[in-house]
Design a protein that fits this description.
Elements: E1 7-8, E2 16-18, E3 22-28, E4 51-57, H1 76-87, H2 89-110, H3 120-123, E5 127-139, E6 142-151, E7 159-164, E8 167-172, E9 188-189
């Protein structure tokens, strides 16, 4: 059904293996090591500092594959977005924390037993990076990036943030970090994607 290698190793992306609709690997992000990083669902548990799962979505899970049933490797737009993330990870991390902190009053309305958080420094105690998703959607020459976090207030749905470059476009449950950016941002499918 699928004609593609099982592995992909092309920096700046970490070495990746093929999944059903995406490629995945792990990497370390500079400046993200002080979060409670976790790796199983949305339950917080320690993992090596700054280590994160990286996923590059190359197939549309909502469409049946079309002939010739080839599986695309990660796109240049995803590599550029990831390179930007690696070069600016500390600054982008700060922007993401600030966006989540600004969204936090909505979280306090929607959930019971939410910790009282008065700063981004305090917020770091209650979230852990789970996954970075390099979207098959792009704007200009760069893909959107979704960040999925575990959080103490919602072990089922987690926390999600969608970004493009330095812009934080959305904060909410983990679904926000999924492969599709906000429809009003003007993103399009990567030219070499099968969608």
């Amino acid at each position: 059904m699928i004609n593609a290698p099982e592995t992909f190793d092309c920096p700046p992306l970490p070495p990746m293996t093929r999944g059903e609709f995406w490629w995945e690997g792990t990497d370390t992000l500079t400046g993200w090591g002080d979060l409670q990083v976790q790796r199983h669902g949305y339950n917080l548990e320690p993992w090596p500092l700054g280590r994160v799962k990286v996923r590059a979505v190359t197939e549309d899970p909502y469409r049946a594959p079309r002939p010739p049933f080839t599986f695309a490797t990660p796109f240049p737009q995803q590599a550029r977005a990831y390179q930007f993330l690696r070069e600016n990870s500390s600054a982008l991390f700060g922007q993401i924390l600030e966006a989540v902190f600004q969204y936090y009053p909505e979280i306090r309305i929607d959930y019971e037993d939410v910790p009282d958080v008065r700063s981004t420094a305090e917020l770091k105690k209650f979230i852990g990076i789970y996954e970075v998703t390099l979207s098959q959607m792009c704007k200009g020459d760069s893909a959107y990036i979704g960040f999925e976090f575990a959080c103490t207030w919602d072990s089922e749905h987690g926390l999600g943030v969608m970004t493009h470059g330095t812009r934080v476009l959305g904060v909410g449950q983990s679904v926000v970090a999924d492969d599709l950016p906000p429809p009003d941002d003007g993103g399009v499918f990567a030219p070499n994607s099968q969608s």
